Amino acid sequence: MKSAQQRKVREFNSSYREQQEIAIEKNSKSQKGLFRRLSALGIFVVIAILVTTITLHSQKSVLENSFEKKQQLEMEVARTQFIERDLLDEVKNLNNLEYISEIARRDYYLTKPGEIIFKITPRTSD
Asked: Is this prediction's pTM over 0.85?
């Protein structure tokens, strides 16, 4: 009786079954490989984003420091140009005889013959 039932149940074609098992195993390996490649790509992207963020942050701070230094140097240049202009005016005035005589009267109390200098000091509020 059993032999009759065993005859009714036929096995699949063993080569077809082996091909299907190989295909399933190949598909499983392919999915594992895809998952590994996507994981590696994700890690690479995260690292790239971190490096880019750190680089941008450091460059931003360097630019801010450079901008502050530039403003300080521009202020110093403006101050130096103002001093240079004053010194050029002073040199120009020192070549003028009337200016030299005025300084001699004011600072050294030198007078022309017959001239009297009166120095008036401003009153204080005390």
From this structure: no
